[in-house]
Design brief:
Layout (H helix, E strand, L loop, with lengths): L2 H17 L3 E8 L4 E2 L4 E6 L7 E9 L7 E9 L5 E9 L16 E8 L12 E8 L12 E2 L2 E10 L3
Antiparallel strand pairs: 1-10, 2-9, 3-8, 4-7, 4-10, 5-6, 5-8
């Protein structure tokens, strides 16, 4: 009888580890009260290789305090040789009725947002250390200044996964 709990623990550990095997990088940063307009979330990472395609994602956790239907982000990717790409990206965060998109059974929703690899396979062009910087760029309608303190986002993350393409 005592072997059943051990069997369940081993089974759970196997399933949990197999679900994460295709991830080369996966980190989150907690946001204390609100995401400040000037607060950049940054990660340093080593390119897994320069041969295989990868999918790059921005990962967010939101609460019902997030009051927008979309999200604008400025994402900067710094390559090892000094090349920099910078994009302003828009993501849909809620349905027309206001219900937050994402996964989760509680009021906290996880959002896995495509950064690279969704249309064209992304292959790291250089070996070495990369940096990514993620900044919110939300504005209220008709307001020239951005939202100084964006509420409802509690974690911001970045992940690299082996592409299934």
């Amino acid at each position: 009888m005592q072997s059943k709990p051990v069997l369940w623990i081993l089974l759970f550990a196997f399933v949990a580890s197999s679900c994460r095997q295709n991830k080369s990088f996966d980190r989150y940063t907690s946001i204390a009260n609100s995401w400040g307009q000037q607060q950049s979330i940054s990660y340093d990472f080593i390119a897994p290789d320069t041969i295989n395609p990868y999918d790059l994602f921005i990962n967010l956790r939101t609460t019902p305090d997030y009051k927008f239907s979309n999200l604008f982000l400025v994402v900067e990717l710094n390559y090892p040789n000094g090349k920099v790409t910078k994009d302003t990206l828009e993501y849909q965060m809620a349905k027309p009725n206001g219900e937050l998109l994402g996964t989760g059974f509680t009021s906290i929703k996880e959002h896995k947002l495509w950064l690279k690899g969704h249309e064209v396979p992304f292959v790291f062009s250089e070996k070495g250390s990369y940096q990514i910087h993620i900044q919110q760029a939300m504005r209220l309608l008709g307001e020239p200044n951005g939202v100084a303190h964006l509420e409802g986002i509690i974690d911001v993350g970045f992940s690299i996964e082996s592409s299934n393409k």
